[in-house]
Amino acid sequence: YGAMGRTDEALKRYARAIQEKPDFALAHYNYAALLFKLGDQNEAFQEFKLAAKLAPDNTKFQYQLGLFYLKVRKEENQANFHIRKSIRLNPNRAIGLEAMVLLEKNL
């Protein structure tokens, strides 16, 4: 729905999915991504954190949370933790390695 320009509908559906199944990590992650796209950084941050907490072995969730800490919150220690965790989970994922280069430049 979000990709089709129906963001209001997408927001409602994600909120409903989360309400019905609060431990649905992917719904939290997608909701966070949409909220971020709409400019709601605070709520997006909470949802990214929750997605990463609910699915601690999900490389993508850890990576995205690390990027959020780095680029939006300017918290290098937390960014470092989550980006390194995403690399440990999947050492062959090129995007995580690129993020480490970005992280090193910011330290």
Entry summary:
This protein has 107 residues and is mainly alpha-helical. 78% of the residues lie in helices and 0% in strands. It contains six helices and no strands.
Radius of gyration: 14 Å
Beta strand count:
0
Return the average pLDDT rounded to an integer: 89
Report the major sheet: none
What ranges have pLDDT less than 50 throughout 5 or more consecutive residues?
none
Q: Sum up the overall morphology in one term.
A: globular
User: What is the count of helical runs?
Assistant: 6
**From N to C, what is the helix and strand string?**
HHHHHH
Q: Could you estimate the helical fraction of the residues in percent?
A: over 70%
Q: How far apart are the termini?
A: 38 Å
Q: Could you tell me the strand content as a percent range?
A: under 5%
Structural class: mainly alpha
Explain this structure:
By secondary structure, the chain is an all-alpha fold. Helix content is 78%, strand content 0%. The chain is globular. The model has no long low-confidence stretch (mean pLDDT 89).
What is the fold's blueprint, element by element?
Layout: H1 7-20, H2 25-37, H3 41-54, H4 59-73, H5 76-89, H6 94-106
Describe the structure using short key phrases.
107 residues; mainly alpha; 78% helix
